[in-house]
Design goal:
By secondary structure, this protein is mostly helical. The chain is built from 17 helices and no strands. Helix content is 74%, strand content 0%. The longest helix has 39 residues.
Length: 332
């Protein structure tokens, strides 16, 4: 190949690359224009996102700076910035202190029971509500089941204590009616756990059905009609059509629930428990509250909370990966 041929070949190659770059630039400009047009058309919808974004920025992301307390020996007069760094001191203290393992086991026990008994409850109630054909009765039932969700645990704890009071409550009245000695249920470790699980299910079962009922309404009614023609009964319809159709929602909510397994329910337990049940009812959150705020050990409490969040995130990833091995319905 002569020098002139090589020069012309290089020139053609350069012009081809330049043309490709121009096409890419033009394509990018067109995509950008379309996105700007879409944003202009839906600008008010984006405006609705602002309060939610501000909430997460102010109450979720900005406070993350306080995580540095786990690596510092916090001194109130010096503040977070002025407190000296101590590295992993409080994490080593965390894994050598026997009390932490006790509250960890308590948290896993209580959360495990919540998942085992509480997770299926909204699914079962949603299936039952879906079978109700009288619209008025169905709406009343749904409303009654939703109401406990809007009561704070402070109110519910007061109601539970009043009902279970051995001296002035309903339980005390029933036992005294039969000349029996009423038990101290909230002071009994095993009885306290039973009260936690039952009251937690009662408060959240109605609210939890909303997602499942919404998923059920999206099922094609022709599937039910075809199954009925084939002779399927109500239980067969539920087992072969309803449950498989909402399995994706169930799996995703289960993954999220396992990711929060270290969230034992601070509000509920804090308003119900007492020193008599610390050994079995003290969870990570209540432990952090007592150590951090009442004991003024802010750095150690932050280390405990940070460890809990890291473990919870790891469990979320592992559960999602495990479910992904046999199902397509995962978080990502």
């Amino acid at each position: 190949m002569s020098y002139s041929d090589l020069k012309s070949t290089l020139k053609e190659t350069g012009s081809g690359e330049s043309e490709t770059k121009k096409n890419q630039t033009e394509l990018f400009r067109q995509k950008l224009n379309r996105k700007l047009i879409t944003f202009h058309r839906t600008k008010y919808l984006f405006l609705l996102m602002v309060p939610g974004l501000l909430f997460y920025l102010v109450f979720r992301y900005f406070p993350m700076y306080g995580v540095t307390l786990a690596f510092k020996d916090f001194v109130a007069r010096d503040g977070i910035l002025g407190s000296p760094w101590v590295g992993l001191k409080y994490f080593r203290q965390l894994f050598t202190y026997s009390g932490v393992f006790r509250v960890l086991l308590n948290t896993l026990k209580i959360s495990g029971l919540r998942i085992l008994l509480g997770f299926p409850a909204p699914i079962i109630l949603a299936l039952m509500l879906n079978e109700i054909r009288r619209g008025g009765f169905k709406r009343v039932t749904q409303t009654i089941s939703y109401l406990p969700h809007f009561l704070s645990w402070v109110v519910i704890a007061g109601m539970i204590k009043q009902v279970l009071s051995p001296s002035s409550g309903l339980v005390g009245f029933l036992y005294s009616f039969f000349d029996a000695v009423p038990p101290l249920i909230l002071a009994d470790p095993e009885g306290f756990i039973v009260v936690l699980i039952i009251s937690g299910i009662w408060k959240g079962i109605g609210w939890g059905t909303i997602v499942y009922l919404a998923a059920i309404t999206g099922i094609n009614s022709e599937l039910y009609e075809a199954a009925i023609i084939d002779g399927a009964g109500r239980f067969r319809l539920i087992w072969n059509i309803t449950l498989p159709s909402i399995s994706g929602v169930i799996v995703i909510l289960f993954i999220l629930r396992v990711g929060n397994i270290l969230e034992g329910g601070f509000d509920q337990i804090f308003n119900l428990y007492n020193p008599a049940v610390y050994e079995t009812a003290d969870i990570i959150d209540t432990y952090v509250f007592r150590i951090g705020l009442e004991g003024m050990q802010f750095s150690f409490a932050t280390a405990v909370g940070l460890t809990k969040n890291v473990v919870g995130f790891a469990l979320l990833l592992l559960t999602n990966r495990f479910v992904k091995s046999f199902s397509e319905n995962t978080l990502w």
